[in-house]
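Colleagues,

For the teaching module next term, I've prepared a clean inverse folding example: a structure given as tokens, and then the sequence designed for it. I'd like students to try predicting residues themselves before seeing the answer, so please don't circulate the second half yet.
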């Protein structure tokens, strides 16, 4: 079998992949959505090392591997591993690589995933590194946008909430830059999109505007991407208290929005979306979380050369 661009390559940043790579992953994910149970990972061991809490990312990776006949090892709390005794990240990775074919890792330190990929003899998949990147979330976000809009091209995307620390926002805007988007960013002043991402968009001539009121861009948007205020990234708890309930999306606010408009959220939510929105046909965040299984099946099987 001819080996693809993905074969045995780590996925650290969403920019590690090209537009064609994204579209290939979408295609393979759609195949897995049709046939999610296959025995192609028999004999393969995937490690999940979560140095930070997770529900969706870890469990959807584990579900993906189980449905494909592979085995999972790992930890959900670094405090139960020898990290607690002072073992370095490098030694942890070199050891776990002895036991597995691929390592999925979430870590609070930005750049930890890149560093791990440089020392690891097996591919590393970044499941979130601090406020930096969350590329597999982005790929499932792209898949969700493609499924709900029928295209990734020429969409108006409104991102709301914590645009400073929200790593899913950072990865997603970079990925969408290939598809001629128009961005609307809604955040409190203290949580605006960092300059490096605005510079990235300017260099690519991608239009964007910033708002503090969610009502301004919502009527014209195709995708409303809500995010949680990332309490764990604040050094001053009082600063979190000031902004924690800045935006709460309610059903009424979705009246007169475009018929194709969908509300996405990487989840978990705290207060950003009122539960009355959950039954609105424009709410898509739980289906979005399900899409994570198919997309992660695609990522693992492509990296291991099984697709
Ligand atoms: N979207 C996401 O990363 O969720 P978890 O933190 O539950 O994995």
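(Answer key — instructors only)
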């Amino acid at each position: 079998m001819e080996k693809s661009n993905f074969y045995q390559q780590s996925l650290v940043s969403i920019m590690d992949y090209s537009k064609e790579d994204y579209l290939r992953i979408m295609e393979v994910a759609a195949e897995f959505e049709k046939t999610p149970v296959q025995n192609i990972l028999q004999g393969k061991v995937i490690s999940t090392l979560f140095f930070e809490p997770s529900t969706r990312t870890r469990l959807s990776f584990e579900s993906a591997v189980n449905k494909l006949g592979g085995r999972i090892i790992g930890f959900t709390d670094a405090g139960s591993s020898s990290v607690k005794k002072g073992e370095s990240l490098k030694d942890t990775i070199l050891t776990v690589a002895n036991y597995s074919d691929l390592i999925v890792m979430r870590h609070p330190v930005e750049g930890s995933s890149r560093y791990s990929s440089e020392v690891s003899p097996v591919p590393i998949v970044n499941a979130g590194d601090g406020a930096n990147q969350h590329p597999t979330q982005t790929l499932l976000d792209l898949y969700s946008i493609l499924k709900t809009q029928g295209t990734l091209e020429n969409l108006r995307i409104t991102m709301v909430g914590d645009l400073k620390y929200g790593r899913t926002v950072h990865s997603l805007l970079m990925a969408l830059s290939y598809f001629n988007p128009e961005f609307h960013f809604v955040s409190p002043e203290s949580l605006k999109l960092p300059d490096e991402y605005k510079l990235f968009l300017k260099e690519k001539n991608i239009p964007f505007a910033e708002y503090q009121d969610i009502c301004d861009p919502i009527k014209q948007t195709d995708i409303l991407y809500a995010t949680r205020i990332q309490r764990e990234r604040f050094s001053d708890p009082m600063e979190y208290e000031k902004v924690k309930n800045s935006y709460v999306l309610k059903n009424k606010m979705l009246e007169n929005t475009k018929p194709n408009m969908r509300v996405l959220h990487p989840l978990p939510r705290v207060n950003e979306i009122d539960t009355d929105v959950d039954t609105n046909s424009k709410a898509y965040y739980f289906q979005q979380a399900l899409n994570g299984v198919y997309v992660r099946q695609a990522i693992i099987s492509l990296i291991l050369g099984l697709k």
